Amino acid sequence: MKDNNVLEFIDKDEAIDLLQQMIGFKTVNGPGDELPLAEFIGQKLEEIGVETVIDDLGNDRGNVIGRVKGRGERETLLFNGHLDTVPPGDIEWEYGPYSGAIVDGKIYGRGSADMKGGLAAMLIALKAVKKAGWELKGDFIYSATAGEETDSIGAIKFVEDGGLEGVGAIIIGEPSSNGINIAEKGAFWVEITTYGKTAHGAFPQNGTNAVVHMNALLSELVSYRFKYEENEILGHPTMNISTVNGGVKTNVVPDKCSITIDMRTVPGMDHKEIVKDFGRIIEKLSSQIEDFKADIKILNDRAAVETKGDNPFVKLAEEIVKEEFDKDIRAKGVNFYTDASIFLPAKQIPCIFYGPGDANMAHQPNEHITIDSLMESVHFYIAIIKKYLVL
Q1: Domain range for 279
Q2: Residues ≥6 apart with Cβ < 8 Å to 167
Q3: pLDDT tens-digit readout, 133-167
Q4: What sequence ranges are listed for the domain Peptidase M20 dimerisation (predicted)?
Q5: Which regions in the chain score pLDDT beneath 70?
Q6: Which helix (H) or strand (E) holds 277?
Q7: CA 119 to CA 375: how far, in whole Å?
Q8: How far apart are CA 9 and CA 1, in angstroms?
């Protein structure tokens, strides 16, 4: 290691400018359009001497993967983040959603917190490490993937291509208010549809009312109880009946009614068992109600994942926060899902989520992060590279 004072190689103005440029790329999912940003990041990686691959996924979608070779003495450290954002929404922003405006020490824009801030901080940290001339005992991978906000197309492709081979630890730069998160709830979304028979509203006896049948089903669902063990970090699972859609006109007996359900699960729960339980409820109602018919469609299936708090990598991260920032923190969990729901079921690897910005800013109008949190993240990322791959 040529220079221990790597922090001298951090350029704050460059970090700010990089994030502003990233915000300027409209990577709204859908459709995504992440490829131009992937290519921009790829160019930045190549400029600092990082071996880089752009994975074109088609339809203007893409991943970018940069690898710094180590001596093979330790497992690979993977930094990951997603390129896409949600839409800016219909509410007018105080500052343009793609402006990267700086006001009172905050950088505004869609994706500033979720999570181009993390991607920018990781890139600036890597550049400082390269400038310092550190020799790494293991490989380092910087990966920015497409589609996390919907189907995780990029993370799935990364895993299929062997991206996790040799990886010993993962950091995902999701906004965490510069804290450490180690667990996330699963997301299990289903659509249930009941079917009836249409008839004139004046003669309802000639039809079968799918909405009435859905009412019977909803009565069962609201009293349904999950089978689970309370998670120390994430607590209990939740269920939300999110949408109801049925009928076409007031004077027509509805022959179809659909609901969507958003379930957030905790580690150890089996989503297949939930489907079986719902199937048994449908079978029960079919035996009790004449002409009752219903089916289930899975819309989203993300496993709950967790790295235990006593894992050495988690302890390392907590030690770094104490040593570098004099903060005593305890690892927490989140109720939303990330690409860890793709990575960890594929291969059990310790994973933490650490990034600039407040998760409550994600998907909100006037999304922003503070410049201080951006720079603190750069500092943390450098420190964990040093502790994991250098010392």
Answers
A1: 186-302
A2: 75, 76, 77, 78, 141, 347, 349
A3: 999 999 999 999 999 999 999 999 999 999 999 99
A4: 182-286
A5: 1-4
A6: helix 271-288
A7: 12
A8: 14
Same domain, 296 and 319: no
- Length of the chain equals 391
Identity at 329, one-letter amino acid code: I
DSSP state of 231: B
Structure tokens that stand for 165 in this block: 């081979």
Distance CA 255, CA 232 (A): 45
Residues 226, 79 within the same domain: no
One domain, residues 41 and 157: yes
Please tell me the pTM assigned to this model: 0.93
Any idea which residue has 């990575």 for tokens? 343
Within 13 Å, how many C-alpha atoms sit on residue 198's CB side? 9
Whole-number mean pLDDT of the chain?
96
Query: What CATH number did the domain enclosing 122 receive?
Result: 3.40.630.10
- The amino acid occupying position 220 is E
The owner of tokens 């910005």 is: 357
Here the tokens at position 147 are 């589609």
As given in the structure block, the two tokens for residue 365 are 């109008």
